[in-house]
Specification:
eight-stranded mixed beta sheet; alpha/beta; 2 domains; binds zinc ion
Length: about 400
Amino acid sequence: MSSYLFKNARIVDGSATEPTEPMQVLVEHGHIREVSREVTASAEEIIDLSGKVLMPGLIDCHVHTIAVLASLARNAELPDSLVTARASLVMRGMLMRGFTTVRDVGGADIGLKRSVEEGIFLAPRLIISGKALSQTGGHCDFRGRYDTRPPIRSGFPLGALGRLCDGVPEVRRAAREEIKGGADFVKIMASGGAGSPTDPIHFFGFSREELSAIVEEAQSAGTYVSAHLYTDPAIRRCVEAGVHSLEHCNLIEPETARFAASQGAVAVPTLVTYEALAKEGAGYGYPAEAVAKVEDVRVAGMKSLAIMKEAGLPMAYGSDLLAEMHRHQSEEFVIRGRVLPAHEVIASATSVAAKLCRLEGKIGTIAPGAFADLIVVDGNPLDDLSLLTHQGRHMPLIMREGVIVKRESLN
Ligand code: ZN
Ligand code: ZN
């Protein structure tokens, strides 16, 4: 079937505090053709959404589709075939939670992206960074203190989050290689992290010269840099170097948030992962030292939301979960809803995220010309964000690019 008419669709897209009046939405050949009070064109199937809400498919701007084990060091030791097979299930889970586009910020390669485009896996559309760039001893260096073996310099396993590079010529080459390999943007590790063994949270990743070189390479390819970072000084120096997408940002202060906003940067908080790691991480093999490091950023994270809102810094939706913990992906909506208005939380996974994915007008919106990525919600998420949780339980219909991938009775 290639055309559908959704009737009596009250639309929620994060742009307003109430659903729209009932609208008619015409879908043809994978795209939205018309949205109006009355559609005169006919369709092969008419779907009445009386009493339901229609939303654009959700967008998660911080995922690692290849993180099939909670221990990222062990994840990189798995054969590519096993990682591919398990990643397909991770991605299917995301789609069935209503996420029709995800931005992979470290790990997924062009082969995975192509597989999704060819329809081999039931999965969200993938926007990828390829391997994240990290300095020696940074957030992608999983060698312990006593491990002095040289890092891999090429031929990275699919399960590897990132790659190591040091010095301006090497970081340039690494950025160029990722872009050549199909990266849509460049991801870097610009501060210490929880899951890596030798970099406390307060460490910086890369020198200013290296940061500027990577930003220049990204800009030369018409794209931008996304940086993993936690502390306020790490965020400031990245924004000064021209980094656009600021991941996590748990320890951001008001002045830096205002500065980042003035530079047109976008933040991607990922609070749900700290909740999940604190509760379940150890049980799934996340190292005990790493669970302790999570505490350093978990509590501060909630304060960061109010700071960034106050500063006018846009926030896109992010989850950053690993392995079995992926099932918590939608709970970020509820966590943010404790601090932010519901429509703004929804916009983080629609309009704000679409812009960050550079697919404005194509995703995150129900408008003519956009991909027909749609979810039907039983109830109004503006009143109750938890309707978006529970593995899609309250989503009787999910459509990705005009194809219905989930359908239950709408009565
Ligand atoms: Zn990170
Ligand atoms: Zn991440």
